[in-house]
Amino acid sequence: MRRMRLILSLIAAGLLIWGCGNSASQDESAATSTQVVTVQAAPIARTDLPVTVAVNGATEVRDRSTIVSTADGTVLKLDAAVGTKVNRGDTVAVIRTRDSEASLAGARRLIESAATPKLKSEAEKALQIARASEILIPIVVGRGGVVTEKLVSAGQTVTTNADLLVMADLSTLDFIANVPLSALPKIKVGQPCEIDLLSTSDGKYSGKVVSMSAQSDPGSQTVPVRIQFESNKSELDPAPRIGAMGVANITVGHHRDVLVVPNSALLRDDINDTYWIYSITPDSLAREIPVQVGVRTDSIAEIAAPGLSEGQAAIIQGNYEVSDSMRVTVERMETR
Asked: How many domains does the chain have?
């Protein structure tokens, strides 16, 4: 009998413990169901979105010119440094002719070898005559530009038609995009684009496709596509530089009248490569909605799903803290 009483006591104690645990679990579940998360939201909008192809490239000038010597002689002056802007009619170099250089050199040798004061005096007069009659040839540019290469220095001897400088006409600066062969069928002359140069802090410029090369690069399997800046280069701020690398986003079409949300509204399952958003029901519950994602820009993304409508609230901040059917309170509703 005593043993039976002990067994009954243990059973009663176990039931009491189970009851307390179950009560605590129910209390925890109730607390979870009443949890409220503060979020920010924005309405789903309807708009047109451009479809773009992003391609890498760099700026390049169509027109380069080489300034040459017009006489045999010695370079006396060559002030134009690389990067110097030169205007039409500017003198960029001065050449002393070979004959003048020979006369001066001969007079100097006479002075050095003069054995008597009389011979030295005669040699100095010869030097004065050589200086007075020396022929200096100015090298004048016929068009403006920027010096990109300096091929000789002052004091060097040059011949007629020897290369002195290379100049680039910045008004012919374009962006050369290297378009993959797979994307080439989408590219057409006249398509607008945005050029984002990596070398400038605010390097976004408008342009349009003006030509496509007939030859592809067998190594990279790309085709050079020339994009012309829409504005005059001197009016662009900051002015793009030759050889500046960047990305051209070429507009190849549009998605019309589509629903969009801020990128921050999108949540992604990396394993299954799927997306969803959280909408808000009229009774302030978060509702998980799987969506198909289309065109994306820096700030917004095209979405599609059954039942989505313009103006419907999408959670854009706090969405990582909510789950389906969780109650939320909207701290701020952004307008678009």
From this structure: 3
